[in-house]
Amino acid sequence: MIASDKTLIRLNGLSKHYGRLTVLDGIDLEVKAGEVLAIIGPSGSGKSTLLRCINYLEPPDGGTITVDDIVIDAGNPIGRAALSGLRRRVGMVFQSFNLFPHMSVLRNISLPQERVLGRSRKEADARSMQLLSRVGLADKAEQFPIRCSGGQQQRIAIARALALDPEVMLFDEPTSALDPELGLEVLAVMRELAKSGMTMIVVTHEMGFAENVSDTVMIMADGNIVEKGPSKEIMRNPQHERTKRFLRAVHDR
Amino acid sequence: MNGLDLMPLFRGLLWTITLTGGAFLIGSVLAVPLLLARRSRVWLVRFVAMSVIQIVRGIPPILWLFIIFFGLGMGFLPVSPFGAALAGLGLIAAANMAEIYRGALSSIHFGQFEAANALDLGRWSTFRDVVAPQAFRVALPTAASYLIGLMKETAVASTIGVTELAFHGKQMSQLTFRGLEVYALVGLFYIALSLPVAWASRAADSRLRARVAR
Ligand SMILES: Nc1ncnc2c1ncn2[C@@H]1O[C@H](COP(=O)(O)OP(=O)(O)O)[C@@H](O)[C@H]1O
Ligand SMILES: [Mg+2]
């Protein structure tokens, strides 16, 4: 399923502390180009922090981050160029969508293209419309986000991130704020994105997505990777007691 | 109105408008560096900015005008009544507007900054495209009602001899012995000034609201 052997993301010994609390305890991780990695695990285990460290929304305390040709040593202060390089290669989708409420849907997607990539308004709008069609929302272009359902807003947020042509997309519980039905339309978009070869790291509680869409599943607990492997194997036949306990708990709900 | 010469009141009105507008402008602009200082990463800068805001807001405006006009003005920094009033009210407006801006900024959802960062919009675009328009919307009604308050506050300038509305009102009532009529008239002038501000603010507010909630 994974399209290539090229490693797109490599984390070495990534660590993060809040005061005396160790949130990431030296994470080593490799993600190949085209791979879809699902991260699951109990709440508070550091999943969000891991995602937010990868694009430096949260500066890690130690370790290195490599994305494509960008290498960042977390021990040192990051330069503007490296930070930009990193963020342009990494798109992110949040649990709470975070669309800009004072802009139309079209403007939400076009403005970053103009500011970040220097596209003209016309180019940007054309690309935005193309992406809106792809997520099934071309008819919403002129609306304001508040007039869209949660599921629609999240699909718009996905389009907004895709518009900057990232190499990898991070999703932090993209369906957790949504009713199950609305979650489905978001998952459908993500499934299509995965099929198209996008490299994705998805923190999720959707076990169906983890098992059937992702290539790899990783379980986190207490800032560590408990287990990681091909999704079917991990989901159907977990090796570690911690993983079994978590999957049972999810199952029993 | 039978026999009252209204010209002085209109001249006073002009000064009231000038003083209000000038102080509001000074305040709106000065509030920006003041707010930045208040949110500075350096502890001392933050402390100084917060003290300035507290002190400026804690002392009655009339006292500020006396300090500037009679205190500084008579000593080493000769200043006209209008200059003193503009400086004093401008300073007070700056402290108040800084607080209004701060409230507006803190009303913006954390996720907005997060999204802007993740998209790599950069500081300037984040401010201009994301933060400022949303903060403006929140600050608008508060700022408008502060502007009306400030307009009424300018009446204290009459105490140091600025020939604004209240000053002419007092003079006219002393000349004509028709205090009730004169001051009622002056009151009407103030109301006439505040109405368009209130109306414009409400219109702008509902227009902005309608845009998002269409
Ligand atoms: N800004 C912060 N300050 C202090 N503690 C934090 C902060 N963000 C997260 N944490 C703590 O770090 C731990 C991991 O959080 P998080 O990465 O959000 O976990 P998850 O996404 O797996 O639920 C939690 O114990 C959380 O309370
Ligand atoms: Mg989380």
Automatic annotation (TrEMBL), chain A:
Record-level Gene Ontology MF annotations: ABC-type amino acid transporter activity; ATP binding; ATP hydrolysis activity
Record's keyword terms, sorted: Amino-acid transport, ATP-binding, Cell membrane, Membrane, Nucleotide-binding, Transport
Membrane topology reported for the UniProt record: Peripheral membrane protein
Domain ABC transporter: 9-247
Gene Ontology cellular-component annotations: plasma membrane
InterPro entries membership: AAA+_ATPase, ABC_ATPase_HisP-typ, ABC_transporter-like_ATP-bd, ABC_transporter-like_CS, MetN_ABC_transporter-like, P-loop_NTPase
SMART domains recorded: AAA
A Pfam family: ABC_tran
Keyword Membrane: yes
Compartment annotation: Cell membrane
Signal sequence interval, chain numbering: none
Superkingdom classification of source: Bacteria
Family recorded in the similarity comment: Belongs to the ABC transporter superfamily.
Protein name according to UniProt: Glutamine transport ATP-binding protein GlnQ
Organism in which the protein naturally occurs: Pseudogemmobacter humi
Automatic annotation (TrEMBL), chain B:
Stretches of the chain forming a coiled coil according to its record: none
Alphabetically ordered keywords of this record: Amino-acid transport, Cell membrane, Membrane, Transmembrane, Transmembrane helix, Transport
CDD domains membership: TM_PBP2 (cd06261)
PROSITE patterns hit by this protein: ABC_TM1 (PS50928)
GO molecular function: transmembrane transporter activity
Gene3D superfamilies cross-referenced by the UniProt entry: MetI-like
Membrane topology note: Multi-pass membrane protein
Annotated transmembrane regions: 12-37, 58-76, 180-199
Cellular compartments per GO CC: ATP-binding cassette (ABC) transporter complex
Localization in the cell: Cell inner membrane; Cell membrane
PANTHER family: L-CYSTINE TRANSPORT SYSTEM PERMEASE PROTEIN TCYL, MEMBRANE COMPONENT OF AMINO ACID ABC TRANSPORTER
UniProt name for this protein: Inner membrane amino-acid ABC transporter permease protein YecS
Organism field: Pseudogemmobacter humi
Lineage of the organism: Bacteria, Pseudomonadati, Pseudomonadota, Alphaproteobacteria, Rhodobacterales
